[in-house]
Amino acid sequence: MKFLKIFLIIVVSLVAIVLIGSLFLPKTYMVKRSIFIKAPDSVVYNNTSNFTRFLKWNPWSKMEPSAKVTVSGTASQPGHLYQWNGKETGEGQMLLKATKPNSLVDIELKFLKPFESTADTKFLLAADNGGTNVTWAMSGENKTVMEKWMGLAMDKMIGKDFEDGLRDLKAFSEKP
Hints:
This protein is α+β, with helices and mostly antiparallel strands.
């Protein structure tokens, strides 16, 4: 009986720590990585705003090449849609919300499975010295207790994928 009492006190304490601790965690997260690409901003813009081209360099396509992918709508135009469904990468979609030719690609990213969440993803492009500075950023809200705790690790979870993707975008954009 004493063991059960101690066990319950430990469980209740852990639950309280998780719940109370979440009150002090950030309500938003941001993951951001940048790279310089020796290619015109128009080339990089086309490779980030056209989801058929995105499919050729994004890190998750390499992670699970067998995932079912559907691209629809007009490239580089609001409404352009990229949908995927895979065992490893889950299910979701990217909807092109807005673009500014050669400078901005703004995407609504929705994860449907294994968990639901929505994020704002942007590619910010700036012509510089014969090339393009590219920043890939993703931000979102941490609405639930679980999301707040996951938000602490978001940079580590996604940052490496962004770095790999930008490296592949660079190679894809710089090839003749």
